[in-house]
Here is the input.
Amino acid sequence: MATQVTQPAAAAAAAAGAGAAVPPQPSSPRHYVLPPPADAPQAPEQLVSVPETGLVDVMLCSHRQALTLFNQAVKTVAQGNTHAMELLAGCLAVDIRLHAQAMADVLCPLLERRYGPGGAAAAATLRAQLEGIERDALEMLTFRRERDWLALAQRVDIMHKDYAAHMHGVEVKVLPRLAADLTPEELVSSALLFQQHKQTASLVPQTGSEAFAAAARAGPEAATVLGAPLVAGSCQVHTHAHAHGGPEQRQQQQQQVAKAAPRPADVPMEQEP
Here is the structure.
């Protein structure tokens, strides 16, 4: 019986016949070359496949990314660094916006289809949580535009607690259920869909807010509503000393901001699928 040889294998065989040592080559980005162990450096390298990422892992990474930004905000508030606070406000708003859209487009419909009335109740809870967090993000960006750093720090504190409650509910009551009930193929396909919706999500949320609706109609000029550079991508340089009346008043404001350092919260969801 004839043996079928793939093109890469044939090339490797030809090179080996010519006396050249050819290491294994990854056939796709889902593979990597494992080097030989330190105690056997002459052992051949091995081609190892990388497991596909499932929905649970993607969701956990999405949550940890937001928590990293919130932790950076806690440190920034404690330092009274208003420039870093300005940057982090935009980062948090974008990260929450993309996560909320993917949740609404992928996870919530999945719960509704899979678990009937219980899943619909859990999906409604998730949507309400994320809409509330996104409204807080709008307030945060408004405070950033107004250079009201104390109010911004307090709003970030509220968002931090609400996001921790959302994260706890998803990771304790939703993800374990999905991991047990969905096949590996379903988890992988749902993860890919979740990532795709994050990549294509609009930066203007649909929260029922007139300010956001006006921003959506205005287009790039909506930066005056959402707070540049989130939408327009143009950051206007400003002088804190001029905006706040001098170094003494700025120092007093930074001390007030430091007192408003966010504290994490851990509140479970009321509904489960």
About this structure: Residues 55-259 form a domain with the Four Helix Bundle (Hemerythrin (Met), subunit A) fold (CATH 1.20.120). The chain has one domain: 55-259. Confidence is low (pLDDT under 50) at residues 1-22, 218-247, 260-273.
